[in-house]
Amino acid sequence: MGVFPENFLWGGALAANQVEGAYNVDGKGLSVQDVLPNGGLGAWTESPTPDNLKLDGIDFYHRYKEDIALMAEMGFKVFRTSISWSRIFPNGDEETPNEAGLQFYDDLFDELHKYGIEPLVTLSHYETPLYLARQYHGWINRDMIGLFEKYARTVFERYKHKVRYWLTFNEVNSVLELPFTSGGIDIPKEQLTKQDLYQAIHHELVASSLVTKLAHEINPDFKVGCMVLAMPAYPMTSDPKDVLAAHQFENLNYLFSDIHVRGEYPKYANRFFKEHGIEIQFEEGDAELLKNYPVDFLSFSYYMSITEAFDKSKYASGRGNILGGLSNPFLEASDWGWQIDPIGLRLVLNRYYDRYQIPLFIVENGLGAKDELVVGADGTMTVLDDYRIDYMHKHLAQVKEAILDGVEIMGYTSWGCIDCVSMSTAEMSKRYGLIYVNRHDDGSGDLERYRKKSFFWYRDVIASNGENL
Prior knowledge:
Layout: E1 9-13, H1 16-19, H2 60-74, E2 78-82, H3 85-88, H4 99-114, E3 118-124, H5 130-136, H6 143-158, E4 165-169, H7 179-183, H8 194-218, E5 223-230, E6 233-235, H9 240-262, H10 268-275, H11 286-292, E7 297-302, E8 306-308, E9 332-333, E10 339-340, H12 342-356, E11 360-364, E12 374-375, E13 381-382, H13 386-405, E14 409-415, E15 435-437, E16 449-451, H14 453-463
Parallel strand pairs: 1-2, 1-14, 2-3, 3-4, 4-5, 5-7, 6-8, 7-11, 11-14
Antiparallel strand pairs: 9-10, 12-13, 15-16
Helix pairs in contact: 2-4, 6-8, 8-11, 12-13
């Protein structure tokens, strides 16, 4: 008997907005991603610009059969992707859906099932229809709940026999840092109050519970999860003030999973809200929805840990870490400054499971790096990405340890299993894939696909169910 469960879901993950391209094909409307030429961390523009690589992505829209065949060659059991809301409802508030968009995902899911690959589908992966951002100001507006319910109902009914695993919102806690990208909120961040942000979050949380309820009504076999950005926090020193600073940072993240899983706002939120002038406006039925329709499992992305201190001015900033924090002197960093911490993944898994005792799913983990395409020993083009193999090996070794610790883990999907346009910076040069795509930051390249060294390593890991790490 190996350590990994026999039914462990090995696979990879992508997002529609980073790979599909075809941004104006077959009736698709614009999403917030189409006006972010410099990535989710940058400013938005009034309309799509030619230098936005996401407009064409890696042409997954037309090449998905080729790409899924490569995933099947690696032995994928599951493939996480997202549905682009604006392919189904181009503006987000139409009366009837776009049939061409629905048919695309029918064809995509059929292709996955041809190879025995389970789809894991995110309903909203940083892809709010642009019209809803401009006309409704995104999730600040409570009307978004009903619009999201209609969209969810449409795809649940359409794919009720093709998709079993669903996620509601991708990295829902990221709206605090990326309100436009994550929440479709088109009000400049500096003008947003904490009241605005947490009220928008409340609307998303209610919507998540509402569509979880809906999913189980449409197909009781559906499994619905939440998805959060996991980032364990360490104190810079053993000074109790630093320990408290790390604890308070983690609570800001736990708030989202606490509500999704436990069905109510945690007590520690009361003081935070009071001290920051936040009064969450509950409508009739909100509390009951949150309480009665928690998620079936908790999924998360994991790329880095964070370090906190009571007096941050004493220490170097963790420049690359998405949610800020301080530089941890014990950790190395990627080319983009993200600090690499495999043991942090074991900590996250244990902390979540100790807190909730529900199944966990690692749906994003991977290394963004500058890859070089070379001629391999057999004469084919490849990437000798031993650094990526080392990264994945060390993280999966900690997943193995967490399973031995007693943590129930459903699966692992490597982020960006095929090279895609970076969410944060809109670069192609920040490559995560096990498959190289010949496209570059200037838009050049013929989009040909090449197997990296990590492709074959991961294939062997999956074939051995994690025993050959």
